[in-house]
Amino acid sequence: EIVLTQSPATLSGSPGERATLSCRASQSVGSNLAWYQQKPGQAPRLLISGASNRATGIPARFSGSGSGTEFTLTISSLQSEDFAVYFCQQYYNWLLFTFGPGTKVDI
Amino acid sequence: QVQLQESGPGLVKPSETLSLTCTVSGGSIGSYYWSWIRQPPGKGLQWIGYLYYGGSTNYNPSLKSRVTISVDTSKNQVSLKLSSVTAADTAVYYCARGMGDFDHWGQGTLVTVSS
Lengths: 107, 115
Known about the structure:
The structure holds 2 protein chains of 2 kinds.
Chain A: E1 4-7, E2 10-12, E3 19-25, E4 33-38, E5 45-49, E6 53-54, E7 62-67, E8 70-75, E9 85-90, E10 98-99, E11 103-106
Parallel strand pairs in A: 2-11
Antiparallel strand pairs in A: 1-3, 3-8, 4-5, 4-9, 5-6, 7-8, 9-10, 9-11
Chain B: E1 3-7, E2 11-12, E3 18-25, E4 33-39, E5 46-52, E6 57-59, E7 67-72, E8 77-82, E9 91-97, E10 104-105, E11 109-113
Parallel strand pairs in B: 2-11
Antiparallel strand pairs in B: 1-3, 3-8, 4-5, 4-9, 5-6, 7-8, 9-10, 9-11
């Protein structure tokens, strides 16, 4: 099983600030990594796939980078609607997809 | 715009079988993979399994002995059955489109396992 670790567990920020979230895989997943945003009471929403490709309708302030075992999600300028939990997910191992534990972005 | 809607009992007794249906609207089930993912209250996400519209499946090894995912293309529905449930199966269950990254999700349905 490929284990994903996310840091920090909680990130406190203010509107307008830059936020950097990290995801580390226990083995290489190439670029087979996605990022999701989840708000309370809602389903996750796909933000990034292929480590760096924004999904349809996702604002340009969200960007993803990395490959292999180290990945980053950057929010260039936090907006009030960005305060949520962010999960990374690997799909390199198509027999067992796994998610990270999440990073909560709050004020 | 594709929309997914989960439905099924919100309460299941221990040792019984959990059964949920995902109805897809605004698009066809054809040519896509469909997955089930769950999230225990206040916890992270666990992938349960996926099905290709043609019927091939793949399940999380930790759940494989208890899970069945099936499709009814005539109704544009994907179904999940999880047998011999325990309290540890209490979660919000989501259906989602995809077998790698999941680009469309249902709103989720909470299933509580309790007598």
